[in-house]
């Protein structure tokens, strides 16, 4: 377990295997999640959590103010076995939006995972909010769906293979969207604010065009490779630390 502390206000990130989470941790995580998401319940939250390998938690002193769950799995693509890191439930207290502490913990965890699999590792995510989508253009050089529409065929094929394997007919490769019908959890309208942000931010505008039904829980399937050459400076630094710690 790795912990990095901010001496100013005692904020730190911890990467914890899911079985090691204390009951109080789970209670805090769900309470935080339910504050920002609707169409969620504790049973579904626990079911999703049970599938994951670990969780990056952000703590202010002892209180959890953010977290991101994830798993790492293999996938065979055209005779090659790659691995993908799939992000699950992710949230950060609104008072900390803009603070990079959760992203630093996430990229560090990805670096550790990359070291452990010893081959190609991709970030596969299904995204229902513009803030998470904006991680892609802000931290990666190449990803799908691409903002300019020039989707690299190799990346798109990998994304489609993973999405189809995980979600079957719920996934539409022509749009990249995963539509479960009834929402399985989506941002509350008061926290989504994509329409307002899209006026001044082209990445939010792209997300809104790509996933106009986000408010009923439709998710956009996205993919980027975790590789130092594909990461911009801020993500690369934490990722490199994770690679070194996991090597």
How would you portray this structure in words?
The protein has one domain (69-246). Residues 1-8 have low confidence and may be disordered. The strands form two sheets. Strands 1, 2, 4, 5, 6, 7, 8, 9, 10 and 12 form a ten-stranded mixed beta sheet that branches. 39% of the residues lie in helices and 28% in strands. It has 247 residues and is an alpha+beta fold.
Give me a quick take on this structure:
The protein has 247 residues and is of the alpha+beta class.
Number of domains: 1
What is the helix tally? 10
What is the radius of gyration? Answer: 17 Å
Q: How many strands, which pairing sense, and closed or not: the largest β-sheet?
A: 10 strands, mixed
The global form is: globular
Number of strands: 12
Report strand %: 25-35%
- The N- and C-terminal alpha carbons lie at a distance of 15 Å
Helix-strand blueprint:
Layout: E1 3-6, E2 11-17, H1 23-36, E3 37-38, H2 42-51, E4 54-60, E5 63-77, E6 80-92, H3 101-117, E7 121-127, H4 130-133, H5 135-139, E8 143-144, H6 153-167, E9 171-172, E10 177-178, E11 186-187, H7 189-192, H8 194-198, H9 202-210, E12 219-225, H10 233-246
Parallel strand pairs: 6-7
Antiparallel strand pairs: 1-2, 2-4, 3-11, 4-5, 5-6, 7-12, 8-12, 9-10, 10-12
């Amino acid at each position: 377990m790795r912990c990095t502390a901010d001496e100013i206000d005692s904020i730190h990130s911890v990467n914890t295997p899911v079985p090691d989470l204390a009951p109080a941790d789970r209670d805090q995580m769900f309470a935080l999640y339910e504050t920002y998401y609707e169409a969620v319940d504790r049973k579904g939250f626990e079911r999703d959590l049970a599938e994951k390998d670990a969780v990056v938690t952000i703590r202010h002193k002892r209180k959890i103010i953010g977290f991101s769950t994830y798993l790492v799995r293999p996938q065979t693509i055209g005779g090659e076995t790659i691995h993908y890191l799939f992000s699950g439930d992710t949230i950060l207290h609104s008072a900390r939006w803009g603070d990079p502490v959760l992203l630093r913990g996430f990229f560090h965890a990805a670096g550790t995972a990359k070291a452990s699999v010893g081959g190609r590792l991709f970030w596969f995510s299904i995204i229902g909010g513009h803030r998470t989508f904006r991680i892609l253009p802000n931290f990666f050089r190449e990803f799908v769906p691409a903002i300019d529409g020039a989707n690299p065929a190799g990346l798109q094929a990998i994304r489609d293979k993973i999405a189809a394997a995980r979600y079957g007919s719920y996934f539409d490769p022509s749009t990249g969207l995963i539509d479960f019908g009834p929402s399985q959890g989506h941002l509350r309208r008061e926290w989504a604010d994509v329409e307002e942000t899209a006026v001044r931010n082209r990445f939010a505008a792209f997300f809104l065009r790509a996933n106009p039904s986000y408010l009923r829980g439709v998710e956009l399937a996205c993919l980027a490779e975790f590789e130092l050459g594909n990461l911009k400076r801020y993500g690369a630094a934490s990722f490199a630390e994770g690679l070194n710690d996991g090597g």
